[in-house]
Amino acid sequence: MTAEEAAVEAVSDPVAGSRPAREGAPVLEIEDLHVSFPTEDGRVRAVRGVSYRVHRGEALGIVGESGSGKSVASLAVMGLLPRGAEVRGAARVLGEQVLHLPDEELSRVRGERIAMIFQDPLTSLNPVYTVGRQIAEAVRAHRAVSERKALERAVELLGAVGIPRPEERVRSYPHELSGGMRQRVVIAIAMANDPDVMIADEPTTALDVTVQAQVLEALEAARRHTGAALVLITHDLGVVAGHVDRVAVMYAGRVVEEGPVDAVFSRPRMPYTLGLLGSRPRLDEERVRRLAPISGAPPTLLAPPPGCPFAPRCPMAEDRCTAEEPPLRSVGAGRTAACHFSERLEEDGADTLFGRPDRAPPSTAPPAPDGAAPLLSAKGLVKHFPVRSKGVVRRRIGDVHAVCGVSLDLREHETLALVGESGCGKSTTARLLLRLLTPDAGTVEFEGADIAGLPRARLRRLRQDMQIVFQDPFASLDPRMTVAEIIAEPLRIHGLYRERGGAADVQRLLRTVGLGPEHGARYPHEFSGGQRQRIGIARALALRPRTLILDEPVSALDVSIQAGVVNLLEDLQEEFGLAYLFVSHDLSVVRHIADRVAVMYLGKVVESGPADRLFTSPTHPYTQTLVSAIPLPDPRKERRRQRILVTGDVPSPSSPPSGCRFRTRCPKFADTLSPAEQSRCIEEEPPLDPWAAGHLTACHYAEERALWSEGP
After folding, report:
1. Per-residue CA distances from 681 to 624, 684, 698, 699 (Å)
2. Which ranges in 28-174 belong to alpha helices (H)?
3. Final residue belonging to a domain, choices 299, 334, 360
4. H or E stretch at 201
5. Does 173 map to a domain?
6. pLDDT in tens, 242-272
7. pTM for the predicted model, two decimal places
8. Do 121 and 218 fall within a single domain?
């Protein structure tokens, strides 16, 4: 056993009742695992020779781009691959080989010794059974206990993962719970029989940052409660940094680097790892450099190229790299890397290797003066959606308060970010600004002219100046049209195709977004997610707009591809002087790209101001919880930083709380305010008042709080 493994064994603290592993033996051991799937064109080699070990109480993080084989390897261990999958190698739990076990024996191992937490909790839970019954079912599958005892265990587990009022929630159905609560129910099911290993497959991908923090805390509680080893599969390097002991980086179906998380993050020995770290924007960094994207795309695993699969994207690649695939070899104490020239990376950073420019992003160029009239302005926007009863006669029984009095200003060459949790009204506000929805009250002005009452003909003319880029590029592109036809469509609709140069203008737009003219003849399904988003941006630019509304434009992309799109947006803003309304829940990206930020909660703006100020010294408790919940891809800082956990879930927008809408989840309300101060928050809605120059906040007891000082 290595010194690192001995240290992990020494600090682990399994609870009473957990089955002890053999002294020094791993609880989970994967050895030379290969997985392939049949297709019409041949077999896809999804996993190629993966090996790793996890000891009791240890947490291993597995990271990599989509398609790297992270989830497939874990599904193979659980015996959950589809028919036709070919699996070779070994997977041992407490020394017992679990690959190719008969279903009956594998069912005994699953849930009792090894448990899995899936990415989408709604598909993991049965909609027709209460969550309590489903947890009790997991208990009774492996333990001879009565139904009453199993339900008591379910209540205990729901409390352990932080679900409030577990005695009541045990009788709830999955659809009655929020996404974060459902994920915690799945964690409770995984904990039911104190397993030796828990595999969490992207457990926080679809969650808001505040809910993500709650789920990660529930995972930590599960580890403490069961003493289990944890395999955490994720693409979020910040999550890995703060919650694992070792990290394995996967690329093209194999592990390309592995080691202690601190060492791998501080001094990567594989160019791909370095590229992943350089691609991720960070909340704790000033906007003085561009991101360092990894060019190109991962290779097809149908017929991997000879040599190192990362060579076509690697700035260090030499002839040897394209001829000989590097083995995973030792590069130091407890560390391995698959690179012929890993020693060269001891001093190089992403800035040097991937050419990250050491200059301010273009979006920090001076926008219009503060006294200048805004390009786009909204005043008192209100939008409520009716809630109707079921049945033949559907009566209006209430309203969803989606947007409640939102006011925004956007100036030329400025990026204004609109942030907040899902359901706060961000996307609805964006659609109101474009008049894709009609507001119930309020005004929207473009260059001083009210657009709310414009006739259809004049509204079409306005579309030339205001365009939108949607979150899902594939859903917003017509699959029956070629890329050239998609980009040309807005020009044809507005009668500008011939005037702007026709096909030559389409080719210019393709080059502008980093694609070649040859891509124009292809269809959307033939492109990667990042390329499809570039196509969507090219279509939005076709009419030469002055304002782009970007609705979660990079949320569905891998971090390496995300960096390229963010850099592209900065380039376009510098070249064309665009104004951006950037709708996002990813505050790391917002920190990098935005000049100003408006924070929304339950349909209202609760704080707005310069991005640097909001991220370093926020004044509203909600903004403080958002900023503190964003994970940092730095293990030392992530473990020591201040953390403000918000409790509970967002109230229903059809029945928002009286007074301050955030008070039901506000840490300050619960912990520091006197009864008289709490009464004010309950009875009186705080106005959005000036705090400092250009900085507004809606809190009766606002105070600045620095969030980047490291803890003790």
Report:
1. 18, 6, 11, 9
2. 70-78, 103-109, 121-124, 131-140, 147-160, 166-169
3. 360
4. strand 197-201
5. yes
6. 899 999 999 999 999 999 999 999 889 999 9
7. 0.85
8. yes
